[in-house]
Automatic annotation (TrEMBL):
Pathway(s): Amino-acid biosynthesis; L-isoleucine biosynthesis; L-isoleucine from 2-oxobutanoate: step 3/4; Amino-acid biosynthesis; L-valine biosynthesis; L-valine from pyruvate: step 3/4
PROSITE patterns, alphabetized: ILVD_EDD_1
Catalytic reactions of this protein: (2R,3R)-2,3-dihydroxy-3-methylpentanoate = (S)-3-methyl-2-oxopentanoate + H2O; (2R)-2,3-dihydroxy-3-methylbutanoate = 3-methyl-2-oxobutanoate + H2O
Keyword Disulfide bond: no
InterPro entries (alphabetical): Dihydro-acid_dehy_C, DiOHA_6PGluconate_deHydtase_CS, ILV_EDD_C, ILV_EDD_N, IlvD/EDD_N, Sugar_Degrad_Dehydratases
Protein name in UniProt: dihydroxy-acid dehydratase
One Pfam family here: ILV_EDD_C
Family: Belongs to the IlvD/Edd family.
Keywords in alphabetical order: Iron, Iron-sulfur, Lyase, Metal-binding
Entries under Gene3D superfamilies matching the protein: IlvD/EDD C-terminal domain-like
Molecular function terms, GO-annotated: dihydroxy-acid dehydratase activity; iron-sulfur cluster binding; metal ion binding
Transmembrane feature ranges: none
Any GO BP annotation: branched-chain amino acid biosynthetic process
């Protein structure tokens, strides 16, 4: 029996689909509980749908299997292979800089999305499909088969058969998505150079099962997991190439020494049994642990006076020379302020400055939109500048790139140090030592915070009011406090 739940249209919903991820998860949970179901196949695709499905299924805890829609085929423009929307962002920057024309931009847009499917880079959709497979809740191969490849339909049919076997064996999410499985997923995330959003989503899914995933664990595993997948936005290739190279099973096989290979999966076999005999057909795309792209993982967690509970950066997609940086702050109070001022000709900005945006977190956004990929000022683009240190309490798309610090926690709307930053303050970023500091005396910070007026509520009724009362911060997965398993409170 097929039945619908709320769908989250990534491009259309305002201010962000993240505002409604928890609502969809509740729809999934209650639909499972209300119907006479012995098992469920979770059909998802773009960014928030996959974690919402897994969160709801984890809470309901009957046998479940994940099937995602798959990535698009590769785009191609004037002989260059393109990936949405990493290359959309790159070329839109060139459009703003005047390096390409409106006609060329339109031609590129007509060339980049040439099939159904989600973004064909290692964005959030591809990352979360990979997380499902590495958690063991999806069949091997789910992450990378293109949406229009006949093997995607074959995978779906096999999943339909397997859910029947999972019901017979009582393979519930709680038996599959264990502490060891989440550690496997985190290591896979780092090896992939995956989306920063996965940290929030994995934390939320684990929280539904009573499993705590502190940011320190993500960073600890990053330190000991090499980055080995040469895929945009952190590398060269695209998801279609990843599939031809052997897909996630081939990458998991390369990671074998670092993973809990005895973790049970929805196949009824262990992760090690699932990837046994897998061949890596493109060692330039899927590197070995001995020849990684980077000795550490794709994501890092930084702490300091500006981010007491942590913030996240993707070093593999950043400019190496900016990973240690000291610069003066240029502050935007919110997204509207940034859009109104970023291209003003007399904006007082230099390439060494740090672009700061606040009021974009779970409460401030509201919903923590993907605003963290702040555009560079047009006046600097025209000088050839293509990256600056940028930081906010927002999220950013997994397709984005650059030296971007996101998920600054606590968010500014809660009266955190981010709310006290002023133009000209000095900010220090030191990714190697995992530091993000505001070089302002603590007493001055507290004095400034005392002057910040309380934020007016975004909602007074309905789901929005419930969201405002119960959403947790990014380091807790932005889930609702009452939806976490009792073990976590």
């Amino acid at each position: 029996m097929e039945f619908p739940v709320m769908s989250l249209g990534e491009y259309n919903m305002r201010p962000t689909t993240m505002l409604f991820r928890n609502l969809m998860s509740m729809d999934v949970e209650e639909s499972i509980r209300a119907n006479p179901l012995d098992g469920v196949v979770l059909l998802g695709g773009c960014d928030k749908t996959t974690p919402a499905l897994l969160m709801g299924a984890a809470s309901a805890d009957i046998p479940a299997i994940l099937v995602t829609g798959g990535p698009q085929l590769k785009g191609n423009w004037r002989g260059e292979e393109l990936g949405s929307c990493t290359d959309c962002r790159r070329y839109h920057t060139e459009l703003r800089a005047g390096s390409i024309t409106e006609e060329q931009w339109a031609e590129l847009q007509n060339s980049i999305v040439r099939s159904p499917g989600h973004c064909m880079v290692m964005g959030t959709a591809s990352t979360m499909a990979s997380m499902g497979e590495s958690l063991g809740i999806a069949l091997p191969g789910n992450a990378a088969i293109p949406a229009v490849d006949s093997r995607r339909a074959q995978l779906a049919e096999a999943s339909g058969r397997q859910i029947m076997a999972a019901v017979e064996q009582d393979l519930r999410p709680s038996k599959i998505m264990t502490q060891e499985a989440f550690e496997n997923a985190i290591r896979t995330l780092h090896a992939l150079g995956g989306s920063t959003n996965a940290i929030i989503h994995l934390t939320a899914i684990a929280g539904r099962l009573g499993i705590e995933l502190p940011l320190t664990l993500f960073d600890e595993l990053s330190r000991t997991t090499p980055f080995i997948l040469n895929l945009k936005p952190s590398g060269e290739f695209l998801m279609e190439d990843f599939f031809y190279a052997g897909g996630l099973p081939a990458l998991l096989s390369e990671l074998r020494p670092l993973l809990h290979m005895d973790a049970m999966t929805v196949t009824g076999r262990t992760l090690g049994e699932n990837v046994s005999g897998t061949i890596n057909h493109n060692p330039d795309l899927i590197r070995s642990l001995d020849e990684p792209l980077n000795s550490e993982g794709g994501l890092a967690v930084v702490y300091g006076s500006l981010a007491p509970s942590g913030a996240v950066i993707k070093p593999t997609a950043a400019s190496p020379d900016l990973l240690t940086h000291r610069g003066r702050a240029l502050v935007f109070d919110d997204h509207d302020d940034m859009e109104h001022r970023i291209d003003v000709p007399d904006l007082d900005v230099n390439p060494e400055d740090v672009l700061v945006m606040r009021n974009a977190g779970p409460q401030g956004g509201p919903g923590m939109p993907e605003w963290g990929f702040l555009p560079l000022p047009k006046k600097l683009l025209q000088r050839g500048i293509r990256d600056m240190v940028r930081l906010s309490d927002a999220r950013m798309s997994g397709t984005a790139f650059g030296t971007v610090v996101v998920h600054v926690t606590p968010e500014s709307a809660s009266g955190s140090p981010l709310a006290a930053v002023r133009d000209g303050d000095i900010i220090e970023l030191d990714v190697a030592n995992r530091r993000l500091d505001l070089m302002v005396d603590e007493r001055e910070v507290q004095r400034r915070l005392a002057e910040v007026p309380p934020q007016k509520p975004h909602f007074t009724r309905g789901y929005g009011a419930m969201y405002s009362q119960h959403v947790m911060q990014a380091d807790k997965g932005c889930d609702f406090d009452f939806l976490r398993a009792e073990e976590l409170g």
